[in-house]
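> example.struct
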C-alpha cells in the first residue's frame, strides 16, 4: 500500500514567508521612525519581540497538546499567561504613548499582522516537520518490509 504524505504547496509556503517578512518589515519601519523618546522605542521593540516569542511558544504548546495533554497544567498557565501578558503589556505601551493617532494605528495594525503571520508561519513549519517525520517513518517501514530476511539495509544493491 502506497500512502501519500500531504504537504503545503510551494505557493503557500512562499505566501506564508512573504507575509511574515512584510509584517516584520512594517513593524521594524514603524518602530524605527517612532517619534518620541528612545525609551519608548526600546520598550516597544522589547514588547514586539516578547509577543513574537510568546506566539511561537503558544503555537508549539497548542500543537503539541492537540491529541493528548502532554504538558502539565502549570506549564499551560505559564504559556497562556506569557502570551496574554506580552500582548497586554505591548498594547498598554502603545496606548500610553503620546504620538499621533494615525501613527498608533499603523503600529497597532502592523503588530497584529506580525502576530497573525507568526501563528501561520509556526503552523506551516510544524506541518512541514510532521510531513517529514511521517515520510521518514513510511520510508523506513517500506525498506524493512521489502528486504528479504537476513539482508541489511546498507549495501544490499
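> example.seq
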Amino acid at each position: 500500500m502506497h500512502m501519500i504524505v500531504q504537504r503545503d504547496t510551494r505557493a503557500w509556503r512562499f505566501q506564508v514567508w512573504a507575509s511574515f517578512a512584510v509584517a516584520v518589515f512594517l513593524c521594524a519601519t514603524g518602530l524605527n521612525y517612532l517619534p518620541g523618546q528612545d525609551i519608548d522605542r526600546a520598550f516597544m521593540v522589547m514588547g514586539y519581540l516578547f509577543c513574537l516569542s510568546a506566539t511561537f511558544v503558544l503555537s508549539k504548546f497548542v500543537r503539541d497538546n492537540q491529541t493528548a495533554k502532554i504538558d502539565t497544567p502549570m506549564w499551560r498557565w505559564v504559556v497562556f499567561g506569557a502570551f496574554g501578558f506580552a500582548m497586554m503589556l505591548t498594547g498598554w505601551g502603545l496606548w500610553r504613548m503620546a504620538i499621533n493617532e494615525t501613527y498608533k494605528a499603523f503600529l497597532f495594525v502592523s503588530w497584529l499582522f506580525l502576530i497573525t503571520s507568526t501563528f501561520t508561519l509556526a503552523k506551516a513549519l510544524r506541518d512541514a516537520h510532521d510531513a517529514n517525520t511521517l515520510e521518514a517513518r513510511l520510508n523506513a517501514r517500506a525498506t524493512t518490509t521489502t528486504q528479504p530476511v537476513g539482508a541489511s539495509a546498507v549495501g544490499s544493491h
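> remarks
The chain has a mean pLDDT of 89.
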